[in-house]
Structures are given as structure tokens and as C-alpha cells.
Design brief:
This protein has 236 residues and is mostly beta strands. Helices cover 13% and strands 34% of the residues. A hairpin with a 6-residue loop joins strand 10 and strand 11.
């Protein structure tokens, strides 16, 4: 059986809750949309700190009409279960409250149209063959700096050149303490931009899914970061 797509509709429904085996509870928050320019309609998903520049990531085989599209993130606000005994102990010892809740980006969605999704498929780059995957295997992009992004293929090299001479993207993440969901980077000369987001629990390999309408048109692309617990096989 092939690796299945997550429940994206639920993942992007504000207020939905997911229970962790640890007893923690995650509540969905959906970030306000930000705009991504896709002048070629060829989409790259990668770690923006390692995947840009002349040797940047390959675009997916799926393409969309050139244009400007919106990106949102599904964030999970995670809280620990209340423990009355621990709370009493902290009061006696004058200890501060533990840092909670905390937030993690569970998925990022690039919206191409507002039509409902009828079917999901894995996004692939050239030379990746879905038929070659074993049970519960998937293709994805590697993250080495705790971040992912969507960017147009035409912007990969110029944005890489721009970011190599600046610390703009890092400063943008630090300004929001890595918890605001999404940040944007725009090269002032070319106007190329990308939309970046922290990648769930951190580094790893993460799949991107294509949502298609009943007529086969691309409605959205979603990268998931394995934050929301589900019953699929271990993907670590």
C-alpha cells in the first residue's frame, strides 16, 4: 500500500484538535495568507538555506499557470495536560510555569484555486518514479536548517545570490522568534520572492502533495511536516 496523504482539510481547519500519545493536545491555527509570485509556474519546494542558488532544487513535474498565489501554514499550538500535583509542587518551590503552549508548523499550503480537492498525489521532480516506491515510502525534500519554502524555479538562482550576501531570511525568522508560521524574502532588484516556514520538529525529509479537482486541475500543493499524529506507518 502506498504512503497516503494526510487529512489536509482537517489539518487546515482552525480550532481542530489532535491528541498526542503523551497526553498533549494540539489545536490548529491557520496563518493569514501571504503572496508568492510564480512567473514560470514551475514550483520548487526546498530548504531555503541550503536549496537555493545555481545548484538549487529541481522543480516539480507538475506546473501551474504563471501568476501570484497565496500560501498559508497550519500551525499546531501544543499544550501539556494539566497536572494538579505538579502545579502544587511548583507553587511550593516558587518555580515558574513551564513554557507552554508552544507552536509548530504542521504543513504549508500553496493555493492555486478554491475548487475542492477530489484526489491527492505525491509531487515528484524529474527522474522520480512513484511506481518504484515500496510500501509506505515517499519522496520528499531534505531539510538541514529547520525550514522549508515554496519558490518559483526562475527565482531559485537569483534569490540564492541575494541571500548569500545578506542575512535577510535569518533575520526575518529571528524577528518573529521562529514561531509566526511564514516569512517572505524578496530580492529588491529582480522582485523574485519566496515564502518560507519552519519545518515542524526540525530537520528531516518531508513530502509535498498535489491536490487535484475532480476534473484533474491542480487546486493546491501541501508540504507536511509530520507534526500532527496519525495512524500511518513510521516515517522517521
Amino acid at each position: 500500500m502506498s504512503f497516503a496523504a494526510p487529512d489536509v482539510a482537517r489539518m487546515f481547519t482552525a480550532g481542530e484538535q489532535f491528541a498526542f500519545p503523551s497526553g498533549q493536545l494540539g489545536t490548529v491555527l491557520v496563518t493569514p495568507p501571504v503572496e508568492l509570485s510564480l512567473p514560470s509556474g514551475r514550483i520548487v519546494a526546498c530548504d531555503p538555506f541550503t536549496g537555493l542558488g545555481a545548484y538549487g532544487g529541481d522543480p516539480f513535474t507538475v506546473t501551474v499557470p504563471p501568476g501570484r498565489y497565496q500560501v498559508t501554514a497550519s500551525m499546531l499550538e501544543i499544550t501539556a495536560p494539566e497536572d494538579p500535583e505538579s502545579e502544587s509542587d511548583r507553587e511550593l518551590d516558587h518555580e515558574p510555569e513551564p513554557e507552554q503552549p508552544h507552536r509548530r508548523v504542521a504543513a504549508a499550503r500553496l493555493v492555486i484555486s478554491d475548487q475542492p480537492v477530489a484526489v491527492w498525489e505525491q509531487a515528484v521532480v524529474p527522474e522520480q518514479d512513484l511506481g518504484a516506491l515500496g510500501e509506505d515510502e515517499f519522496y520528499g525534500y531534505g531539510v538541514d536548517a529547520g525550514t522549508g519554502c515554496f519558490v518559483d524555479a526562475e527565482a531559485v538562482e537569483p534569490l540564492g545570490d541575494f541571500e548569500s550576501d545578506t542575512e535577510t531570511l535569518m533575520a526575518a525568522f529571528e524577528a518573529v522568534e521562529w514561531s509566526a508560521g511564514v516569512v517572505t524574502l524578496t530580492a529588491p532588484e529582480s522582485g523574485h520572492n519566496l515564502v518560507a516556514f519552519s519545518s515542524g520538529w526540525g530537520d528531516g525529509v518531508y513530502p509535498t502533495w498535489i491536490g487535484r479537482t475532480a476534473s484533474g486541475e491542480v487546486a493546491c500543493l501541501v508540504t507536511e511536516f509530520f507534526v500532527i499524529p496519525d495512524d500511518r506507518s513510521d516515517h522517521s
